[in-house]
Amino acid sequence: MDLYDRSIEIILANQAHSGAYPASPNFPTYRYSWYRDGSYIAYAMDLVGEHDSSRRFHQWAATVVNARADTIRRAVAKAAHNEPLTGSDFLHTRYTIDGNEASGENWPDYQLDGFGTWLWSLNEHQRHTGIELDAKWRTAATLVADYLTALWARPSYDCWEEFPDNVHTHTLAAIHGGLVAHQAFDGADHRMTLAALSEFIETKTRMNGHYVKFPGSDAVDASLLGLAIPYRVVDLDHPGMLDTVAQIEATLRKGGGVHRYPTDTFYGGGEWLLLTCWLAWYYLESGAYGEAQTAIDWVEAHVTAEGHLPEQVPENLNDPACYGPWRERWGDSASPLLWSHAMYLVCETLRRHASKQSAN
């Protein structure tokens, strides 16, 4: 089985007619489309030449945002007057494949990183296709940029939908990357916000040399890789980034895979395939091809008989006592997870390109 081709097949087969990518078709609470997951999946589709798939997702995403223009403008206006925001003032982070807000569920929907990631992915779509972005997409992008500019300094849920009382380093990185991207394709001037974001990240989110999950924490989180890859807030060889990667390797990689953070207990706190790919992505961009191949090999070793890549595997658990209750509640880990397949495609595309360059 060629996991590269199988990953493309799985993503295309599960993309909805609307253009949305469900996070996982076989896991009930993941049968929604998140901006975070979908933006990475769209980027992977652009890398492998499936530009129509990416275009359809961005069309869906822009339509969802434009339908909520009044919500965004209300949130921006309240923030400008330093007024408190209620749940009805926030964009949700996940939607049904038809673009509706999920109803009847208590979900940590106030997350900002996915919208920054969408702006980054939009710019990558234009860069890979050479096609000017649709006017309605640009309208949605401006709404999102205004929303992120107004709210970035406020606490929100992190990318794992936890710790809502904090301002998260990865979230700030995604917003920074998104606003840089918006400047690139729209010509907007976000210099003041970008400077404030950079100063906050450098002065508030580092401890003992490395970056941390959020101010006041001393722990690393695998999502901190986003500071360098793909959001480019700092260089690959920035001292703080090098220290962060060293901490991730030392504390979040007990075996071959990568954990989310040291005290994670979701499904016992197992090793995540997409995070292992994320580390491999960093290695590939850094020229550490041997380390990247080892990480990719580990991911490939965990493909199921159906050719699926799950969210995580129950190996080297942070808290084994939590695994049983989570599994009893939800069943096995989500599989296939389309974000896992997307991150594998990113890594394998880069690895094949590097191998071809080396051969030449």
- Helix percent reads 40-55%
Following the backbone from N to C, one meets helices and strands in this order, namely: HEHHHEHHHHEEHEHHEHH
What structural class should be given to the helix and strand makeup?
A: mainly alpha
Distance between the termini: 27 Å
| Count of domain modules | 1
| CATH level 1 name | Mainly Alpha
The CATH topology corresponds to: Glycosyltransferase
Any idea what the radius of gyration is? 19 Å
Beta-strand segment tally? 6
Total helices: the number is 13
Low-confidence stretches: none
Outline type: globular
Overall description:
The chain is mainly alpha-helical and 360 residues long. The protein has a single domain (3-353), classed as Glycosyltransferase. The protein has 13 helices and 6 strands. It has helices at residues 3-14, 35-47, 51-66, 69-80, 113-129, 135-151, 169-186, 191-204, 239-251, 273-286, 289-300, 320-330, 338-359, and strands at residues 33-34, 94-95, 206-207, 210-211, 271-272, 312-313. The protein has a two-stranded antiparallel sheet. A hairpin with a 2-residue loop joins strand 3 (206-207) and strand 4 (210-211). The longest helix has 22 residues, at 338-359. The two termini are 27 Å apart. 49% of the residues are buried.
Itemize the secondary structure elements and their pairings.
Blueprint: H1 3-14, E1 33-34, H2 35-47, H3 51-66, H4 69-80, E2 94-95, H5 113-129, H6 135-151, H7 169-186, H8 191-204, E3 206-207, E4 210-211, H9 239-251, E5 271-272, H10 273-286, H11 289-300, E6 312-313, H12 320-330, H13 338-359
Antiparallel strand pairs: 1-2, 3-4, 5-6
